[in-house]
Amino acid sequence: MLGRHSLLWRLALLLMVTAVCTVTLSDWLNRTLSGRALLLSDEAKTVMLGYAADAEQAWQQNGEAGVADWIAAMGDREPGDIMVVSRDDQSLSGTPLTQSERAGLRFQRGLEWRMSFRYRSMPYLGVPFPERPQQGSLVMQLPPRYMPGQDWPIWKSLLMVGLPALVALALGLLLFWRVRVPLRELQHQVQQFKDDPDVRVQPSLSNRGDEFGDVARSFNHMAEQVSAMLATQRQLLNDMSHELRTPLSRLAVALESDLDEPGLRQRVARELVQMRTLVNDALTLGWQDTESGEGAQESISLLALWDVVSDNAVFESGWERSRFPCDLPADAQVHGNLNVLAQVLENLVRNAVRYSPPKGRISLSGVREGGWWHLWITDQGPGVPADRLEDIFAPFVRLDSARAADSGFGLGLSIARRSVQRLGGELWAENVCPGLRVHLRLQAAV
Hints:
Elements: H1 7-37, H2 42-77, E1 82-85, H3 99-106, E2 124-128, E3 137-141, H4 152-195, H5 203-206, H6 211-256, H7 261-288, E4 298-301, H8 302-317, E5 333-336, H9 338-355, E6 363-369, E7 372-378, H10 412-422, E8 426-431, E9 436-443
Antiparallel strand pairs: 1-3, 2-3, 4-5, 6-7, 7-9, 8-9
Helix pairs in contact: 1-4, 4-6, 6-7, 7-10, 8-9, 9-10
């Protein structure tokens, strides 16, 4: 879904405003420039006023004969009809006006008037005598060389095509610049990330409310996961190398000792089991950082799952079945992956068994909270110091009191927490009197 601040809406708004402004500007320029293009030039006005002055002079000096001679001379200079008329539109040349000339009188225009693009022939201009306008005026067709607007089709094409093209080019450059800046920043951060996994996109880009902000936040999230995965893998490698030294050292001591063959075989077998457990748990923890999911999910009965887990615990520990009580209702079901949740509960129960006192009990309880099941597994062991409750979920962390030869490698709780988190749940611990209580928050089945 496109968000409220999606880049699409901004681009659409920008395009809409630009289109409206371009159309408005083009229309205004078209009307303004077309009006100016239809006005006579100053040269045409000067020439026409000069002709009117010459006609007036001919009238003043020689009357109708002078006007007739002047019109005859003008006919050789300018094409079209030429008339010198009185205020009542009577010819001052002694020659009656023709029908076409009288039609031109009716549609004559002044020097300051706008012409028209619809003329089929040159328009008629009426210019009063400069000195004695009450005596008469010159009416003649405008010489073709002075016809205004002859270049207007070219200018109109530029306005209709050139202006939108220029606006589109400017808009394209603006959009390119606006898009190029965040893209270049993202590209720069990606290139830096190859050499420095701690590089993140700056808040100026990641805080944006558009698609670039989404990409930047996704990149930062991916970078956090990759950095955490690399850190975990480095830590796993360091811790595994450290943890493997102990069984290897014991094997070296055993080989150099005076143990008989059965004792040596027993020692080797024991150390091999320890190392295999370490490698399996470390690989499981490492795979959790690279796998994209936890497999198919389904509705799981908590009572049935606890029966399986407790049966396995009875077999491994030799405890009685009654020491693994469960007070969940029969319809308690969660949504998740069966194998993952079984491994989580087995790790938690195995850890609880390891630190429980003789005759101790390990119970499973819970309550439905909306769309979630809040479960807790409680043992009766010594508990954990309050300031170390979070540390027990870190890889290879074992409390001082737990560093016995059979105490494991400190990976079970870490694997359990990561598995629950990948299913969308939570896992945490608290001390009770007596023992340790591990809480799980899992999505309830519908």
